[in-house]
């Protein structure tokens, strides 16, 4: 043995090979950055609506969302392989919201849930209808509100169960309970149907 094989194994990689590897890594990063930007643009408002169904404070929700998406951008090479990347964002942002609300609870004399609800508004258009529904959702337990809003966003019971770590039977129960309570709130406010038309004569309706 002349030792040539041993020394050959220690020979530095050609500069061209290193440059090619760096170029490929840069190309892959650019592809992932573009892919994440598309994902974030397409999912942001859906996640925001889901989180705001359970949290009354828009600023807290948006701060948590921004942190979750920043973290998601860093971890995108792994998250992109998940069955439901949007589920990762929902859970991550929700945990951040919970921590922030717990922090505020410790610092305040009352819990965020004890704040007076936003005043009810007349339903005049789709935007006001959405705001009114969000106000009503805040009268529900947070898990019911969250499940109900995810269902409205098009998530199946199976999707919701997987993302939130629930049994499908629990998802169905939360949805039924949420619908029942929302119907009660709508009747108390004088609305009788899904179009949001106010009944004549208050909650008793026309005779």
Describe the protein's architecture and organization:
It is a single chain. With 207 residues, the chain is an all-alpha fold. It has nine helices and no strands. α3 (58-74) crosses α5 and α7 (142-152) crosses α9 (168-189).
Question: Which keywords apply here?
Answer:
elongated; 207 residues; 9 helices; 0% strand; mainly alpha; single chain
Low-confidence parts lasting 5 or more residues at pLDDT below 50?
Answer: 109-124, 194-207
Percentage beta strand: under 5%
| Spatial separation of the terminal alpha carbons | 107 Å
Instruction: Report mean pLDDT, rounded to a whole number.
Output: 79
**Total strand segments:** 0
Helix content: 55-70%
Give the secondary structure arrangement, pairings included.
Layout: H1 4-9, H2 15-54, H3 58-74, H4 76-79, H5 85-107, H6 126-137, H7 142-152, H8 157-164, H9 168-189
Helix pairs in contact: 2-3, 2-5, 2-7, 3-5, 7-9, 8-9
Briefly, what is this?
The chain has 207 residues and is mostly helical. It is built from 9 helices and no strands.
């Amino acid at each position: 043995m002349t030792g040539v094989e041993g020394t050959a194994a220690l020979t530095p990689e050609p500069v061209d090979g290193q440059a090619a590897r760096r170029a490929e890594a840069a190309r892959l990063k650019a592809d992932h950055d573009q892919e994440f930007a598309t994902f974030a643009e397409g999912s942001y408002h859906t996640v925001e609506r889901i989180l705001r169904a359970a949290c009354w404070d828009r600023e807290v929700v948006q701060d948590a969302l921004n942190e979750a998406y920043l973290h998601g951008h860093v971890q995108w090479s792994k998250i992109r392989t998940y069955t439901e990347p949007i589920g990762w964002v929902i859970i991550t942002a929700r945990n951040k919201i919970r921590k922030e609300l717990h922090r505020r609870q410790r610092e305040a004399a009352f819990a965020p849930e004890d704040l007076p609800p936003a005043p009810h508004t007349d339903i005049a258009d789709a935007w006001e209808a959405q705001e009114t529904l969000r106000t009503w959702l805040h009268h529900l337990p947070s898990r019911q509100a969250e499940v109900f809003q995810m269902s409205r966003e098009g998530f199946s019971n199976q999707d919701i169960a997987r993302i939130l770590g629930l049994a499908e039977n629990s998802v169905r129960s939360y949805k039924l309970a949420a619908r029942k309570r929302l119907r009660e709130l709508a009747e108390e406010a004088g609305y009788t149907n899904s179009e949001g038309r106010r009944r004549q004569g208050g909650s008793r309706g026309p005779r």
